# Entry
Amino acid sequence: MTKACTDQVDLYEDVRYCRGKKATPGVRPYFFQIPRRDVISIPAPAGNAATTLAESITIIENFVLVADKKWHRIDLVPDKGKFTPESQGETYSKTSKNSASLPLPGTEEEASALASQLMNDDSLFLIPQRNGKFRLFGDDEFTVDVAYSQDSGDAVTGTNTTTLNISVPCETAPPFYAGEIVATDGTFSGATGKLITTPVTP
# Structure
């Protein structure tokens, strides 16, 4: 007798791609970061409770932050940042290794201090695709590892950057975050990257 797998959810569906539709590479020239200690609760995607593939990897609820805490916007060198998730592990224990390379302009005090702070801290990251959809790196299960490198460049046509290399295990590829992002410049939509509300001036 074959044993029934009662905990398996079948979310498979047709995945079609229309000719002429663009899959624009790269990320927007910035990302958001917040220390985990400033987050009260981290929302999660629907997973097996979803009814479609897209829903299963999309977060629709908002982060709950400690009072007066906000996401920090970090600018990147345009057209240089990227994320590169890939599977890892053995059969039945596979997870996703979600990595990103985030080059900041310059090697001056702020960039150097940020890199030094992040490498031994515990933060969450929201990185926008080119189309404005944000991807989440870090959750309740796993801690994001941050390493950095600096390149002073060696010629006037060279590069001068501080690159953050982040990596975190996850049950899936980086989830899509469609909730709100409360930042210093206002509140943004994680689904589009657009400004929802501007900050209130005291």
In short: The chain has a mean pLDDT of 93. Residues 30-197 form one domain. The two ends are 70 Å apart (CA to CA).
